[in-house]
Structure formats: structure tokens, C-alpha cells
Amino acid sequence: MTVLIYSATMSLDGFIAGPGGDMSWLAPYTAPDPAADELAARTGALLVGNTTFGGDDPNRGTDAEGAFGGTWHGPQFVLTHRRPDAGPPDVTFTDDLRWAVAAARAAAGAKDVNVLGADVARQCLELGLLDEVVVFVVPVLLGDGVRLFDHPGGHPVRLEHVARGIGEESTHLRLRVVRD
């Protein structure tokens, strides 16, 4: 069964991007990581927010640009209210989240769908579509920026551990969304 996974690298104080979506803080923490490699190998399609898709890649202009440090290639479904007339190959733009999730699951085949972008992940969680959260926590305090999840006035969501580990540059947590 295809699993819908939100994955992100996060500062210890809970930010996945700096102010204005700045991702340059991430560059020192992009060392090879077996847990990230395993996640990339399990990924058959991406569901990406438009801000993340057009955002600040710390590896822009290098061989490491793109998802999973440039090692992953495949179908991407970008959720946006401003669809371009044309896009890169293997990228589909849509404003329909449920359609995008279904299309990404179909494109992933026997593999998983990886969600990139805090707002898209929040929307998936609110609709009961998100299955897992994988977080790589790195040793830095950003102080401000884009939070892993930000939903003021929201309700608690129970998660249960699937796996956890410590790498050279990060501690990773893999958590399943508990549905009541």
C-alpha cells in the first residue's frame, strides 16, 4: 500500500526553513544519511507545495539540486492556485489536493508518496490523508521561519513511533499518524 509521508529536515527549535523560506541554513547538514537514502529509495512520487517547488534550494546550481540532494527523479505533483502554462517534464500542476494525492499515489505504484511543504502537509493532515511524518532534526536553532507544522487553534494529533535513529548530522524520527 502506498504511504503518504511528510518528510522534512528541522532545526531543534522546530523550523524547516528560515525567514522568507531561506534554506541556506541547511547546507552544512546535507551529509550522506542512510535514513534519508532509504526514504528516497521508498519514494515513487512527490506531492509538493508551490512555495517549496519554486523555493530556495540550498544546492541550486549544483549536482545536488532537487529532492533528496538531487538523487531522486520521478513524477511530481505541485499544488498551486497559479498553474503555469507549461512546466518541467514529470511535473503536474493542480489546485485540487485530493486529486493530487490520488494521482501521486497512482504514479508511485508500489512505492510511497513524499510530501514536501509545510502547508500541503498540514492540509493533508486536516483531511485525514497523511499516514506518516519523517523528521530529521539537526543541531541548530534558527529562532524564526517556517515551522514544521503551524496551525494556531488546531487540535492535537497523536503520532506513534515507527523508527528512530541517530546519524552523523541528524536525529531522525519516523512517526505514524494515529487515526481514532
Order of helices and strands: EEHEHEEHEHEEEE
Secondary structure: number of strands: 10
Spatial strand arrangement across the major sheet: 5-4-3-6-1-7-10-9
Structural class assignment: alpha/beta
List low-pLDDT spans.
none
Number of helical stretches of at least 4 residues: 4
> Roughly how many Å is the radius of gyration?
15 Å
| Shape, principal axes of CA atoms | globular
Q: What portion of residues belong to β-strands?
A: 25-35%
| Mean pLDDT, all residues | 87
Indicate the percent of residues in helices. Answer: 10-25%
Distance between the termini: 20 Å
Instruction: Give the biggest beta sheet.
Output: 8 strands, mixed
Word description of this protein:
This protein has helices spanning 34-42, 50-53, 97-108, 118-126; strands at 4-11, 15-17, 43-49, 76-79, 91-94, 112-116, 132-138, 146-147, 159-166, 171-177. It is an alpha/beta fold. Strand 3 (43-49), helix 2 (50-53) and strand 4 form a beta-alpha-beta unit. The longest helix has 12 residues, at 97-108. The protein is globular and about 40 Å long. The chain starts with a strand and ends with a strand. The mean pLDDT is 87.
What is this entry, summarized?
It contains four helices and ten strands. The protein has helices spanning 34-42, 50-53, 97-108, 118-126, and strands at residues 4-11, 15-17, 43-49, 76-79, 91-94, 112-116, 132-138, 146-147, 159-166, 171-177.
